[in-house]
Amino acid sequence: MDEFSAGEQAARKRAVFEAMSPRRRRRIEKRGYENWDPFQPPKDPIEIRRDVSQRTSGQLVQRCVGRFWPVRIGRTDPRLMSKA
Question: Model-level pTM?
Answer without folding.
Answer: 0.48
